[in-house]
Amino acid sequence: MKEQMRARAQELQRRLKDHSIDIAIITDEDSIAWYAGFWGYLGVEFGRPSMLVIPSEGSAVVITPLMEREMVSEMTWVEDIRAWQDPQGPDHWDQVLAGVIGQAKDVTIGIERLKIPALVSSFLVDRHGAGALRDISPEIGKMRMIKTPAEIAIMRQGGQIAIAMLDGGRSKLAEGVPEYEVALAVIEAGTRKAAGFLTDQGLEAFMSPTVHHLQVLQSGHHTSMVHRRSSVRRLQKGDPVYFCFCGMVNFKQYKLGFDREYFIGSVTDEQARTYEACIAAQEAALAQVKPGALAEDVHLAANEVYRSAGFAPGYRTGRAVGISNLEAPELKDGDKTVLREGMTFAVDGGITVPGKFGARVGDTVAVTSDGHEIFTPYPKHLTVVT
Fold first, then answer.
1. CA–CA separation, 91 vs 76, rounded Å?
2. Which of 20, 296, 356, 381 is the most buried (most CB within 10 A)?
3. Is 290 exposed, middle or buried (0-12, 13-18, 19+ CB in 10 A)?
4. Stretch 14-19: mean pLDDT, rounded?
């Protein structure tokens, strides 16, 4: 795995040369993990940036808080690790970074413009001028677009973890059960499943099986509030209950999309019709996921189902996923990227009835040579839990 990461960095160096960029400063946690194999746990929101610096020629450098240096050195293939520490002075991160960049006045710096922290970009602008910065996000996006067999294997395991999480949550569904108890069951089941895929050797020793983030779970009329977290609300008869695992499954730093919905005790005709339209839209979208299709074709297929059923079209039917929750391309109108084998997507169906309920379903798939593979194969038919 480390050699694969080293090869990625070398490919980025080639691309930097092609675009006449002298040095790349990578601050996004996902990109750092993809190129260098490490990630921090208390990041820039604590004022503690970690950086991977890749020059167009020469060796990569990691800049990390001193307290994480030992851990980083065990995780990454990069040999030149420079630790920084507070307070402000010669050992602070900005001065360490300045030392890595050097004194050249006309240096051209590649950054991920929408992901670089403001404190880092401000430092670079103050020192080198805004004209020195070049957005390399498109190049990094292209490099990450086609997943390797090793990445596909990780995402398959992520799919199994997501299914275990859903099984755990489903086992708790009943009238009178508070939402947070369902969420706790999700976390326990997912953590135990993930632990079964890990060892305490090598890079895996630094990978926690504990699932990440607060569970996206809503019930009743709250299902119209997308991405609401579990609360102390107790499930009632007639409630829809919506599970979303986007961001929850973060296995070996890889993410996926997976959504299912259930009904407690009963379901109304309106809810049933809406949910079935949601399933039909996702199925129409999935039918378009194959090599040679355009990204927007997937989206347009879903929107045709929504319109035919009397619902408004959606903004987006899905997006590429991988080491980030949002990658390129996106399944939306205007994205004419041609789908290729090895691309991975979260493909969703969703309808919101404001103030009443929402109906949603989602799966993660990989484009194969002759169609697609679903990483989250799990029943999605309308189910009333009794």
1. 22
2. 296
3. middle
4. 98
pLDDT in tens, 118-164: 999 999 999 999 999 999 999 999 999 999 999 999 999 999 999 99
CA distance 149 to 151: 5
Closest CA to 361 of 220, 235, 244: 244
Q: What's the token pair of residue 232?
A: 């102390």
- Give residue 207's identity as a one-letter amino acid code: M
CATH of the domain spanning 146-385: 3.90.230.10
Q: Is 281 left (phi over 0), alpha (psi -120 to 50) or beta?
A: alpha
Q: Is 52 helix (H, G, I), strand (E, B) or coil?
A: strand
DSSP string over 194-245: HHTT--SSGGGGG---SPPS--EEEEGGGGGSTTPBP-SPBP-TT-EEEEE-
Domains of the chain, by residue range, sit at 2-144, 146-385
Q: Looking at per-residue confidence, does 126 or 86 come out higher? A: 126
DSSP 109: E
Q: Is the distance from CB of 282 to CB of 363 less than 8 angstroms?
A: yes
Helical H runs in the chain? Answer: 2-18, 29-36, 69-75, 93-101, 118-128, 137-145, 149-170, 179-195, 269-287, 295-308
Q: Among residues 97, 109, 107, which one has the least CA distance to residue 134?
A: 109
CATH code 3.40.350.10 for 2-144: yes
The C-alpha atoms of residue 197 and residue 209 are separated, in whole angstroms, by 9
Average pLDDT on 203-212 reads 88
Selection from 76, 71, 74, 72 nearest residue 35 by Cα: 76
Number of residues in the chain: 386
CA dihedral sign of residues 367, 370, 371, 372 = negative
In angstroms and rounded to an integer, the radius of gyration of the C-alpha atoms of the chain is 23
| Closest residue by Cα to residue 77 from 54, 102, 110 | 54
